[in-house]
Amino acid sequence: MNIVLITGASSGIGKEFAEIYAKNKANLLLVARSGDKLKQIAANLSSAYAIQADVFVKDLAEENAVEKLMSYINEKGYEVTDLINNAGFGDYGSIIETDWAKENSMIHVNVVTVVYLAKGIAKHMIDKNIKGKILNVGSIASFMPNAHMSIYHATKAFVLSFSLGIREDLKRKGITVTTLCPGVTASGFQERANITKASFIKGGSMPTSKEVAEFGYKHLQRGSAVAIHGFKNRFLVFIMRFLSKTFVTAVAYRMSSND
């Protein structure tokens, strides 16, 4: 059975991607650590759109999570046509004050899991002769360092560079790779990262997770390389090409002050 694999599917952008694919009659395999929420989402989508929605409840920060997920896919006989590599989180604070255990988990989820899952699913697609699609979720953070969130921004810079590299590699196998780069989005990300008071959070309205997911889905279908959500974000990325990294980092520091 063909399925779409979505990580971080219990809330935010991942949940909205699940809704979009279900509306388009795709069967789903949803992954997140929040089991009750995930099962309810799967049940709702199955009922509303007459599709099959399976769940794999797992914290992707765990060492063998991707191996267990790939084993489950093989046991079920699923054929993954699309991967939405969405799971990830951030943390806020000075590097000398933040918690290493949380940061270690962040690096594992945002980098190691993204790489390992993309690698595993790409091999799976090639073995099954599937001309598939992979979407890795980066961020506007992919384009700039930030002293308040230095590790998170570095992980997202990695995601963009990695995605562009494997895009060139996998296109020869009929697999497209798109990097979705949203800006600040109305989701649970800010609360988990402890940045609800930052000036760039407080000022102005934020796009919804649904808007970002719809934008990402459209560009994934087109086979776009990089999809930066929002005109202001696209303009910002353009302008940063002409500015020094040190200047951009200083501006990001002021904009993200949490007071």
TrEMBL record:
InterPro entries documented for this protein: NAD(P)-bd_dom_sf (IPR036291), SDR_fam (IPR002347)
Domain of life where this protein originates: Bacteria
GO CC annotation terms, alphabetical: membrane
GO MF annotation, one: oxidoreductase activity
Oxidoreductase found in the keyword field: yes
Matching Pfam families: adh_short
Keywords of the record: Oxidoreductase
Family indicated by similarity: Belongs to the short-chain dehydrogenases/reductases (SDR) family.
UniProt protein name: SDR family oxidoreductase
Organism of provenance: Candidatus Dojkabacteria bacterium
